[in-house]
Write a structure and sequence with these properties.
Number of helices: 7
Low-confidence stretches: none
Order of helices and strands: HHHHEHEEEHEHE
CATH architecture of the largest domain: 3-Layer(aba) Sandwich
Strand content: 5-15%
Helix content: 25-40%
Largest sheet: 2 strands, parallel
CATH topology of the largest domain: Rossmann fold
Structural class: alpha/beta
Strand order of the largest sheet: 1-4
Shape: globular
Number of domains: 2
Mean pLDDT: 89
Length: 189
Amino acid sequence: MDSPLAISATDIARHFSTLFREEVRAELALDPDLFSFKGVEFVRSPDRSKQLNDQHGPCIIIAASGMMEAGRVRHHLRNTLSDPANAVLAVGFCAPGTLGAALLSGDKEVRIFGDPVKVNAEILRMEFYSAHADRNELVRYLSCQQPEQVKKLFLVHGVEHSLLALKELVTAQGFNDVLIPRRGEAFKL
């Protein structure tokens, strides 16, 4: 696992494991550390991360993707995309215009750190896994609110057409002041 943030999140999950669902706590009674197993390595240092690019033989690198736009994943992609023996599994959504979206759309060459990189690796997608709520989950979340008492509702973190569709939906449910802020826009609350 080559993601200091994911490792820190895993440490938090370990620390608060008593808060897991009953089924997970039962599993923890059998295996007190579900996050570690033979062969897993938690990589924190940049030097060790770079060494992974010289790895020979089968290896799975789990790196936080940020739509493949930032962090260590870009280095791994630059070093592995051209090899047809490799595969990249994208988990979750990649917005248009991102490196992840380019790979998922089948581009045969991408630019990473300004350099062209041939895409010969197999690109796979797992669409059903995301940490973000979808439209229906957001609407369900808002259903416990009395729309007339909500002074402002801000919709952020999404592609424009999805945000506009969500705005239309929640406006139809009685939320009156629904805003989609632009980058740098400020509001007085």
